[in-house]
Amino acid sequence: MTIDTDLSLKTCLRNYPHTQALKTGARGVPGVRLEFVDVKPHIAAFRRMVRDLEFDMAELAPTTYIIARTYGVPIIALPVFFSRRFHHAGLVVRPDAGIIEPRDLEGKKVGVRAYSVTTGVWTRGILREEYGVDLDKVTWMVDDEEHVEALKLPENVVHVPEGKSLAGMIATGEIDAGFLGNAGIGRQGSPKENWNENVPLELPELRELIPDAEAAERSYYERTGIYPMHSTLVLKEDVLTARPALARDIFNAFAAAKDAYLAELRAGTTAGKDADKHRAMAEIVGKDPIPYGLEANRASIEALIRYAHGQKLIPRMVSAQEIFVDL
User: Fold this and answer.
1) Which pLDDT does position 15 carry in this prediction?
2) Contact 245/90 with Cβ under 8 angstroms?
3) Which pLDDT belongs to residue 187?
4) Are 303 and 224 in contact (CB under 8 A)?
5) What is the pLDDT of residue 1?
6) What is the pLDDT of residue 4?
7) C-alpha span between 29 and 43 (Å, rounded)
8) Average pLDDT, stretch 234-260?
9) Are 198 and 190 within 8 A, CB to CB?
10) The pLDDT value given to residue 39
């Protein structure tokens, strides 16, 4: 496919089957050349985007974006969401911590990589709204810095001592619970290549806080319509100021790439880890497990804004239309 271009956009985006056609050039944005840059781990690109505006267009964690936007960073998001998952699973507790049910987290120390990490924000919102946990009575232990430097953290967010990590502290019992994977105890240090290679091999037996998380997630979605998103597409504001019609062209290009992938998914002609996950998600949320667009995601967007505000991550409530281009 040959596309005449008069604009180049430096773009940082992870590899997904539903965006691969754009990265290979099989599909494109009219009049635009996308110059793809890979950053590993991609989490490091979040920091580079909100601090230095290094890319013209980038995949960004939605909480990082909401915080950056409310603190005046000149970026704007399109309602394109690359990664989705629910959040009743993934918070584990030590068996000797005296934590039987979610409200037992009150008075305990819980490890999360950074207070604003999207996994933590979604889970804390669920703990408060679904299980009545007073988040202010939990000490949130962090071992990394926040992406948005202007963010002022609540007093119950405490950085671990120099030289320690969440992974090591849950192993020794210095913290009572923690988030799995890159959101917490599954890595050590700040985001850099191979940052999860030195996690202690001998962790204690850990228990998921919420039993039968899959059933809880299905119920949560059926009752609320909230389908947590994990990454969104942002652009520098001046890019769209110069060419307002570009927002629709970019959205359409990403939607077309996704629709082609979904056609293969439904036909059973694509396979792999992502395809398996999307088929499983479709059983809960319907035929499109990767919905784009403002209205299709309004409940989820408004929930994340509400959670972020309730957790003192943003200084004021904002509307979905303030932070996402309405296409």
Assistant:
1) 95
2) no
3) 80
4) yes
5) 39
6) 47
7) 25
8) 97
9) no
10) 94
Mean pLDDT of the region 252-265: 97
Picking from 94, 87, 66, 174, the residue whose alpha carbon sits closest to that of residue 131 is: 87
**Mean pLDDT computed over every residue of the chain:** 94
Phi, psi of 103 (to 5 degrees): -65, -15
Domains of the chain (ranges; CATH) run: 5-84+227-323 (3.40.190.10), 91-223 (3.40.190)
Q: Where are the strands (E) in 22-174, listed by range? A: 31-37, 57-60, 75-81, 91-93, 109-111, 139-142, 157-159
Tokens representing residue 10 in the block: 């430096």
Q: Does residue 3 have a pLDDT over 50?
A: no
Q: Are 106 and 131 in contact (CB under 8 A)?
A: no
Q: How far apart are CA 198 and CA 205, in angstroms?
A: 19
pTM of the entire predicted model: 0.94
Q: Are 59 and 14 in contact (CB under 8 A)?
A: yes
Cβ atoms < 10 Å from Cβ of 298? 15
Taking the C-alpha atoms of residue 290 and residue 260, their distance in angstroms, rounded to an integer, is 12
Averaged over 282-299, what is the pLDDT? 97
Assigned token pair, 124: 């804390």
Q: Tokens 């307002």 identify what position? A: 244
* Structure-model confidence comparison of residues 218 and 192, the more confident one: 218
Residue 302, number of CB atoms within 10 A of its CB: 15
Query: Among the residues of the chain, which ranges form H helices?
Result: 20-24, 43-52, 62-70, 118-131, 166-172, 213-224, 237-242, 246-267, 273-285, 298-310, 320-323
Cα–Cα dist 76/236, whole Å: 6
The single-letter DSSP state of residue 229 is B
